[in-house]
Amino acid sequence: MQGRLAASLRAYLNDRAVPSGAAYRVLRGAFLAAFAAQAAVAAAVALAAVALAGRNVAPSPWIALVLIVAAAGQVALGAVVGAYGVRQAGRLARGLALHRPHARTSDAPTSDGPVSDETTSDAPVDDGAEPELDEHRRIRVARSAALSQTLLSAVLLSTPSWFVAFAWATGQSAVTLLGLLATAGLGIAFGTMQIGPLARAVTVRRS
Prior knowledge:
Blueprint: H1 2-14, H2 20-53, H3 61-95, H4 117-121, H5 129-157, H6 160-169, H7 174-201
């Protein structure tokens, strides 16, 4: 399983012709893994706090309001940052001409006259290796930036899980817990919706 994940990540970072569906699966897996990791840490901290100090069953409408507003604001911030990241990825992709397949230049002479012996015997042959290496590096940077943006969105959009853990540890009402869980679910929805355009922005579009 780990070998398959590593192979998918290498293909995502290095293969220029990787399809957008494969890129989407890599980015979605990274988003869900980061989201689940932060939620698990929040739950573990809440359980440890309750085990040490006990659960304080004291519902407060003010605390509930603050938690819900803070969670909604965090999801809104994550959605805005994610949308900005998708836009920046699109600009970078247009700069790399990722909207069309790579067209390799021909080594054949384009002039009408014959090629002199001086240009064919002593001049070094430019086989396009350096431009291809430079393009490979730029594509890798673009893909890495998209992956970093996905992880950042996961961190921002999963922050409501900490509010859920705090609300449970302080004994807030079931309505408050359900509202916070719905906010966390909205964060997952926003994150997964942004992954599609992000994956398409950094992959070659087939016409």
